[in-house]
Amino acid sequence: MRKLIYILCLSLVLSSCEFWKTTESVEFSISPASKNTGGWKILSSEVPGKPLYLAADDYDFELELQPNAFTAVLAYTDGSAFPLGAIYPCTTILNAQDGFAADVFYTLINLSSKENAAQVKEYLNYFNWQRLMTECRKYENPWNLDKNHLVQSIASGTFKLSDIRMLE
């Protein structure tokens, strides 16, 4: 009888907790220094092509993401040439300086086919995104960096710091 009660209690605890949950709700903030009058279009590499729209005065939002899996989040405004961005779990605050690195990540996800998307995401989880963001922040305008060369070197697995270079 004790054994039965123990098993019932254990099964109740396991079924009621978030033990089996495969995603987590992550709160993001858009840098308050960002000016916007027309609203935000939020894109995530977790679900590319399915934007989230926010009002111009909304600076906070939540996304359901895989825990600790790298995810690029981009915020576009009307008339803005470049998005604000963040790479989770490195940061959850979208800003202009991290927009370039997040766009590189998002581009790599978009270039993958449906057949190899899981493999690409797994590969990108081993890349040092924190270091790339740190290096890109050293530039006054990281959008002047050679994004195509950077994407190619990361995709081919040959990336080195010297691949971060200005457009020619």
TrEMBL record:
Protein name per UniProt: Lipoprotein
